[in-house]
Amino acid sequence: MRKRIVLLGATGSIGASTLRVAAAHPDRFEVVGLAAGRDARGLKALAERFGVRHLALAAPNAEGIPHGEEALRALAALPEADLTVMAIAGMAGYAPTLAAIDAGHDVALATKEVLVMAGTEVMRRRAERGVRLLPLDSEHSAIFQCLQSTASQPACVRMGAEPKAEERVAEVILTASGGPFFRRKAIDWAKVTAAEALNHPRWSMGPKVTIDSATMMNKGLEMIEALHLFALRPDQLRVWVHPQSIVHSFVRFRDGALMAQLAQPDMALPIQYALTWPDRAAHAPVEPMSLAQMQGLEFAEPDLDRFPCLRLVFEALPQGDWTHPVLTLANEVAVKAFLAGRISADRIAGVIETCLEQGAAPFDEIVRRAEAAVGA
Prior knowledge:
This protein is of the alpha/beta class. It has 14 helices and ten strands. Strand 2, helix 2 (about 40-50) and strand 3 (about 55) form a beta-alpha-beta unit. The N and C termini lie far apart (about 55 Å).
């Protein structure tokens, strides 16, 4: 029987890779619902290509496609679906993710803000409804693959009394490409342009995620996501810069063993693993790694003085969960302002730091504080 998939974020890079996987395995997957942000024509073209009737958009449109949060929630909870793929950028993915969980659907999650902002609530609802939360990010997929065994299960898929994988873990090491600036001897963030920051050497992503990669804030957000997915403590998390993006993450176990997952820097493979889990497909639309490609791999600890956004995350996490939405929302407001030309790149870290200094607050107040810091 084919697995029936709803895909939210269909016209983005994760959506494109998901549809590439679905097209490579027509015997295993059927796409039954598609959603996007504003691209009505692009969404209709995909619907025609994959024979999909159920559509939704975040924004109003002239094509008569249902739109708004309620439309996205309804699509995420589509009764005939087996799995909801959540690839909508930012907090717009939060309500649809909860709708999918409440409908009893497993969720393959690429929208890190959902867990960064409300990970405790999402993981509680997941456990109550007895569904799995399957990581799509390459780093979290790597950790997920390393943690699974016949002896224990990761928190994101654990259904009850199985032994806890996190009890075997000494530390988790998230790898980072370093973005476009890792090899620069000095970075003057005040002079960095949006075009420079968007010129990622390895990955093709949306603008916001690409800027986060340049500042390495994306790795900080991924640390928070890992805390929730795998029930870890902040002191168990490390970051290593790995420019080749072949080793996607490491797990060091308490007995000293170090496990890693290696693959091409192509999102299709972690997406396919989430869609086929707990099975592995016999092939993927990705070239397999050769031993020759693994020669000369580089690893380095990040210089937190050169990447102040990541430094702020390391400093904030031990203070508690209240820092998670502050880090996320302040960064989101600041990156948006940078892309709009309202602030320079060095102000991104400054806005985040200002909001952290002001302490815990409701989501809307954090946004207000961040916007005030941008305008200051």
